[in-house]
Design brief:
Number of helices: 5
Shape: globular
Strand content: 15-25%
Oligomer: single chain
Largest sheet: 5 strands, mixed
CATH class: Alpha Beta
Radius of gyration: 14 Å
Structural class: alpha/beta
CATH topology: Maf protein
CATH superfamily: CinA-like
Helix content: 40-55%
Number of domains: 1
């Protein structure tokens, strides 16, 4: 875990604990790094309710309860899909905030035509935000770390604005 990811997780953890709020995570190409970073901060049980690595359609259905009909007309690795994942994680866990990530870590792109280093991130809570990140890097691990750090920074930015 990079220092930037650890620092982002520590900042989010401090803010959530101070506010008495909780988060649930649904991540894909970050492979569990968002959840791991949040859980690495002491006192995680005060703010982290759970997470799921939703890497496949089957995982999306089994772990989040999202059917094919629920995602009809939507593609993975898009901001609308990321928002759906964040909202669903929030609702399913009863969290104050849902955080999601969906993308293509590399070394190749995904079947939707996105290049490696492409991800969409979203936060759902009293305020919602989504964004797309393009690293331009085919390095899978570097992208996973960058995706996780960007997701936590997006959550922090949203917390700052709410």
């Amino acid at each position: 875990m990079s220092p930037a990811l650890s620092a982002a997780a520590a900042a989010v953890a401090e803010r959530l604990k101070a506010r008495g709020q909780t988060v649930a995570v649904a991540e894909s190409s970050a492979g569990g790094l968002i959840s791991a970073a949040l859980l690495a901060v002491p006192g995680a049980s005060a703010y982290f309710l759970g997470g799921a690595v939703v890497y496949t359609g089957k995982a999306r259905m089994r772990l989040l309860g999202l059917t094919r009909e629920a995602v009809a007309g939507m593609r993975s690795s898009s901001e609308p899909y990321a928002l759906l994942l964040a909202r669903t994680a929030r609702e399913n866990f009863g969290a104050d905030w849902g955080l999601s990530e969906t993308g293509a870590a590399g070394p190749t792109g995904n079947s939707y035509g996105d290049a490696p280093g492409h991800t969409c991130l979203a936060v759902a809570g009293s305020k919602e935000m989504a964004m797309t990140l393009e690293t331009g890097d085919p390095d899978r691990f570097a992208n996973m770390d960058a995706f996780a750090a960007a997701a936590l920074k997006l959550l922090m930015s949203t917390l700052d604005q709410s």
